[in-house]
Amino acid sequence: MSAVIDYYYFGASPFTYFGHDAIQEVAQKHGASLNVKPVNLMGVWAESGAQPPAQRPPVRQRYRFLELQRIAEQRGKAINYKPAFFPADMTLADSATIAILLGGGDPLPYMGRVFAGVWEDEANLADRDEVAKRLTETGHDADEIIARAESGEVAAVREQNTRDATAADAVGVPAYVLNGEVFWGQDRIEFIDAALASGREPFRAL
After folding, report:
1. Could you tell me the sign of the dihedral formed by the alpha carbons of 81, 83, 86, 88, in that order?
2. pTM, rounded to two decimals
3. Could you report how far apart the first and last alpha carbons of the chain are, in Å?
4. Burial readout 33-61 (b: 16 or more C-beta within 10 A, e: otherwise)
5. pLDDT by residue for the chain (206 residues), tens digit each?
6. Which residues are CB-neighbours of 100 under 8 A, at least 6 positions away?
7. Of 125, 169, 182, 198, which is least surrounded by CB within 10 A?
């Protein structure tokens, strides 16, 4: 039976953007599947005690920019370090992922276009037209997906995803859960690769 990796994310996270290609490559390498689960990041942070970047002490804000530069170089990703539309309300963009999944589609290419929209293209992904553009670019019926994304059914799934993330001890995003073991951050993808390669038993909090 192939492994399943729960993939918790928030569309405006630069670290999710950095890790998106890498987690797909690791999953493909090991024949694992990705169970994509967009979350309300504020709900995750409320449980873990994290704060939005602008509310963090200046030393942490400065260090974040160092990290963004290092990771961009490591992953070979273009990035605007201070994008015009950040932070952004990603409710519709992320809900569209759930709508794609409910319709039996693959949301991963769309997600990649959303992340690039925020961090490369200076696009406002809180805007309905920008979401529709990326849905169309990745082969989806934008009107159909957006209508479903705005439904109560999708909102309920997103809130359940948020509860699932906190139950799994996700500190923030991206968070990946393999066999009940949580890996927080794009810099933990190599650990997932190693765990899948070895087939080891999951580690647990002591």
Report:
1. negative
2. 0.96
3. 28
4. ebebbbbbbebbbeebeeeeeeeeeeeee
5. 799 999 999 999 999 999 999 999 999 999 999 999 999 999 999 988 888 888 899 999 999 999 999 999 999 999 999 999 999 999 999 999 999 999 999 999 999 999 999 999 999 999 999 999 999 999 999 999 999 999 999 999 999 999 999 999 999 999 999 999 999 999 999 999 999 999 999 999 98
6. 106, 107, 110, 140, 145
7. 198
Distance of CA 83 to the CA centre of its chain: 17
DSSP assignment of the chain equals ---EEEEEE-TT-HHHHHHHHHHHHHHHHHT-EEEEEE--HHHHHHHHT---GGGS-HHHHHHHHHHHHHHHHHHT----SS-TT-S---HHHHHHHHHHHHTT---HHHHHHHHHHHHTS---TTSHHHHHHHHHHTT--HHHHHHHHTSHHHHHHHHHHHHHHHHTT--SSSEEEETTEEEESGGGHHHHHHHHHHTPPPP---
Q: Tell me, what amino acid is at 11?
A: G
| Cα gap 127→158, rounded to integer Å | 19
What phi, psi does 62 have (nearest 5°)?
A: -65, -40
CA angle 102, 88, 34 (to 5 degrees): 35
